[in-house]
Each structure stands twice: as C-alpha cells, then as structure tokens.
Amino acid sequence: MADNFNIIRALCRTALTNPSDALIHQVERLIKNLEKEGKKKEAKSLSALLASGKKDVHMSPSRIEKSFLHNRGESLTNNTVIPVDKETATPLAEVFFAEDLPTEMPVFDIKMEEVIISIINEWMKYDRLLEIDASPANSCLIYGVPGTGKTHLAKWISKEINIPIVLAKLDGLMSSFLGTTSRNIGNLFKFANRYNCVLLLDEFDAIAKLRNDPHEVGEVKRVVNTLLQNLDSRRGIGFTIGVTNHEGLLDPAIWRRFDVQIEIPRPTQKVMMELLKEFLKPIDLADSEMKFLTWCIEGASGADAKVLANWIKKSSILSDKTPMVDTMRKFALLNTGRVKDDKRNLFIGNDENLISTLIKDENYAFKQKDIASLFGMTQSSLSKLLSKQKEVENI
Ligand SMILES: Nc1ncnc2c1ncn2[C@@H]1O[C@H](COP(=O)(O)OP(=O)(O)O)[C@@H](O)[C@H]1O
Ligand SMILES: [Mg+2]
C-alpha cells in the first residue's frame, strides 16, 4: 500500500498542475476515503497537494460559485410550513437538509460518474453561464430500473451543491378527488419556487398510471398540463430532478421539459464488485469469494447487492463454517427475483454441473484453487472430480 500510495500521490501532483473541477472532486473523494480508513498521514499529504493545486488556479471556481447559488429564493428551515393535501392533510413533500443527505456518491461506472460531475459543475456555475447567455441546464430526468441508485443519486447531487431537497413522491400528490391532484401539483411548485431548493419529483411515472384508466381521460389531460406549466414555471428559478423507473410511460412533452436525461444502467461486473465490497464493510472477503458473489447476482441491481451483502453478514455470524457455495445456494433459493433462473437451477442441480459451469466461465476466469475453497473441498478432490467428469464426457 505504501508504495502504491507514493504512485497515487505522484499521479495527483502531476494531474493537479492542470486542475479541473472533476479532478479536484475526485481527489477530495480520495481524501475523504483515506480519512475514513484512518490513513490520516496520507489524507493530510493529499490535502496539502490539493491546497497548493487550488492556489494555482486562484481558488476552485466551484467554491466561488456557491455564493451565487445560495442567493436564490428564501431559505428553508426546520420551521418552514410544508403544504398539505387538503383532503387528507398529508404533506405534499418532505424536506431534507444537508445533514440528512448521503455523503457518498453512488457507485457507477467511471464514465457515468464523470457525466454526473459535469452536471453538478454546470449547476454550480449556473449564474455565470446565464450571464453570458449560455442557457445552462437546470433540470434533469434520471431513469432506469428500480434499485439502481437513482433516488440516492438525486439526494447526493443536492448534498454536493449544498442546497436542501424538496422531495415529492408523485403518487402522494394523486388524489381520488377530481381537481385535487392538479391543485396539489400547483401548491407543491408554488412552495418549491418560493424557496432555495432542489425539487425532486420522485416516482414520476405515477402520473402515467392514471392514463390506463379510461374514466380518467379528462383528469389526466388536466394533470399533465398542470405539470407541464409548472415545470416551465421553474425555468430560471431553481433546479428540478425527475426520477422514474418507467421512462416509457412518460408523456413525450414531459420528457422534453428536462434539459438533460440520464439513464442509470444496471451495475457492470466491476461496479457490482465495488458495490458488494462497500456494502459488506466491515467484512472483508477473499477476491475469489467476491468474484463468486458477483457471478451469482449478475444482472441484479445495487439494491439487490445490498440485500446479498446483508445475507453474507448474517451468515458470517450464524453459520461461519459453512462453505460459500452453500450460503449462496440458500440465498439463490430464497431470492428468486435476484438470482437469474439459469444460475438458480445450477444451485438446485448437482455440484458437478455448477463447478464445470464456473470453470468454463471465461468472463470470470475462476481458478481451480478458488473453486475448491468455495466448495469447501481440497484441491486434489476437486481435480479428481474434474478428471472423472472428463472421462464421462469422453465416453
Ligand atoms: N449504484 C449504487 N451505488 C450505491 N448505492 C446504491 C446503488 N444502487 C443502489 N444503491 C442502494 O440501494 C438502495 C436503493 O437505491 P435507490 O436510490 O432507492 O434506487 P432507485 O431510486 O433507483 O430505485 C439504496 O440504499 C442505495 O443506496
Ligand atoms: Mg427511487
């Protein structure tokens, strides 16, 4: 680690001779992580590099921009009265302040992380871009399958730009009383437009559900129109994030109201491994075990990775001597929605098939030694089993 850290520091020093906001952001993340791991000396040394790098560019632009950003609208406080649905008295939104928001960026592919940081930078420099007529983006739609970290991402963006978030779940605004849904939407936007906040319209697709009901045609039109007008009313006033699991259900006119649209993909193999590592903390598994867990839930979401990590944590206390394959067999049988059918069938069938599938998987490149330990057998009994299998195949 010490040797690698010297290389990392040299890399940072070189890169910081020409610092961009994205670079500064990544170095700040590295410092935070090192601090968390108790590596104070390393964190301090990078902080010093960062400070001298920033001096060279006369302070990071994002720091200067923050003052503009915070002069927009009245400030929300814990005492601010939140509008409610007149029929049920339920609040139309929930307000989250910086201290309630996640400090960790969701784990995504590096390209996706870069794109997200570029949006944050644009929002940080909103007023400067406006001054030169550069039409900065102030709204974005985040979409993708459930559990991929979309709501987490929206909250983290608010945390990064240091503005509280007004979170409204769209299905919470829907009322069975004619006209009340539109009135709720109007009141929600009036509230958000008055205060300095990021408006998060979560589970945006709820509006679309109404469309499936033939009795509701008139009401749907009215709701969609209200939403369109209100989205327009936020131009130049504040930032808006829409989140949806079913982007196909959204009205194209609503879709177009968002300056940028980001699709959050399911985790790749590498991202899944990182997610599992993160969620498994403080438990540290061998690389071969990490690879095996990733293989088992390939194609699942980040939320699924969290469930699996929790399962492994529990098993480490309740049945710590059990071979990993048996722990995962149970998981596969109890989580039919998280483990794909073909893999689950392998767990149900005999171990020989499972072993030979793992050995043949070029993507994961499991070593015989790793497989033996996953199955709790010695390497020689695994070799014997494999050669027996080969004999059978050759007959
Ligand atoms: N890529 C990711 N990085 C970090 N955490 C994730 C990721 N994907 C999912 N999660 C975690 O899974 C849970 C569900 O995420 P959430 O943001 O609510 O998903 P979505 O809004 O896409 O349905 C949260 O606890 C979240 O932190
Ligand atoms: Mg969500």
Automatic annotation (TrEMBL):
<keyword id="KW-0547">Nucleotide-binding</keyword>
<dbReference type="GO" id="GO:0016887">
    <property type="term" value="F:ATP hydrolysis activity"/>
</dbReference>
<dbReference type="InterPro" id="IPR003593">
    <property type="entry name" value="AAA+_ATPase"/>
</dbReference>
<comment type="similarity">
    <text>Belongs to the AAA ATPase family.</text>
</comment>
<dbReference type="GO" id="GO:0005524">
    <property type="term" value="F:ATP binding"/>
</dbReference>
<protein>
    <submittedName>
        <fullName>ATPase AAA</fullName>
    </submittedName>
</protein>
<dbReference type="Pfam" id="PF00004">
    <property type="entry name" value="AAA"/>
</dbReference>
<dbReference type="InterPro" id="IPR050221">
    <property type="entry name" value="26S_Proteasome_ATPase"/>
</dbReference>
<dbReference type="InterPro" id="IPR003959">
    <property type="entry name" value="ATPase_AAA_core"/>
</dbReference>
<dbReference type="InterPro" id="IPR027417">
    <property type="entry name" value="P-loop_NTPase"/>
</dbReference>
<keyword id="KW-0067">ATP-binding</keyword>
<feature type="domain" description="AAA+ ATPase">
    <location>
        <begin position="136"/>
        <end position="268"/>
    </location>
</feature>
